[in-house]
Amino acid sequence: RLAADTEKTKGDATGQLFKATREMQEMQMSFNLQYLMLQNKISQENRQFSMVSNIMKNKHDTAKNSINNIR
């Protein structure tokens, strides 16, 4: 009986370890997904900023060239 109780305790500990490991893996996957979503959002914002910056530079250069052509 003592041997059976010891085996059961080992089995419970192993089961708990596997459960904790699985929960940690699921949490890591969740964090990885959140990080990937954040990277995508930052990348999208960077593209939008670059686009607006390029448009503003183009407008500025056009206005500057127009003024220089008048002189």
Tell me the layout of helices and strands.
Elements lengths: L1 H69 L1
Structure description:
This protein has 71 residues and is mainly alpha-helical. 97% of the residues lie in helices and 0% in strands. It contains 1 helix and no strands. The model has no long low-confidence stretch (mean pLDDT 91).
Class based on secondary structure composition and strand pairing? mainly alpha
Determine Rg (CA atoms, Å).
31 Å
> Got a strand count?
0
| Average of pLDDT | 91
Largest sheet: none
Helical content stands at: over 70%
Distance between the amino and carboxyl termini: 104 Å
Succession of helices and strands: H
Strand content bin: under 5%
Uncertain residue segments: none
* Principal-axes shape call: rod-shaped
Number of helices: 1
Q: What is the compact description of this entry?
A:
97% of the residues lie in helices and 0% in strands. By secondary structure, the chain is mostly helical. The radius of gyration is 31 Å and the shape is rod-shaped.
